[in-house]
């Protein structure tokens, strides 16, 4: 076994920074929270908090395998919400609600509805959602 192949968490900290981490860490894992690969072991970690916020400390890297070592991995994703879910189409615009200029959607996405309301709310009513009954 030539080493390497650790999974390192560069934005994380050890729970007990004084604990003996042993030796034999690759340069990639040496100064980080890391796990050495061992045949038959699994590694499980959460990438989001219970509130659904990405946990920056879960960001990780697979360190290079050194020498003639081999590392096999298999990933199992568990999603908090449906993955690649087909969302229903947006509701139809109220009758008479339309954009009169082809660029309206792009302008609205760049904030022009608030920056230039005199033009936008009239000419781009659909994209600015300024028609009666629209949120």
Automatic annotation (TrEMBL):
Instruction: Please give the start and end residues of each transmembrane region.
Output: none
**Can the keyword Iron be found in this entry's annotation?**
yes
What compartments host this protein? Endomembrane system
Keywords, A to Z, come to: Iron, Membrane, Metal-binding
User: Can you supply one Gene Ontology CC term for this chain's record?
Assistant: endoplasmic reticulum
The molecular function terms of the Gene Ontology recorded here are: metal ion binding; procollagen-proline 4-dioxygenase activity
Signal peptide residue numbers: none
| Domain ShKT residues, every copy | 97-131
The UniProt annotation puts the region (Disordered) at: 1-26
Please identify the protein, giving its name as recorded.
Answer: ShKT domain-containing protein
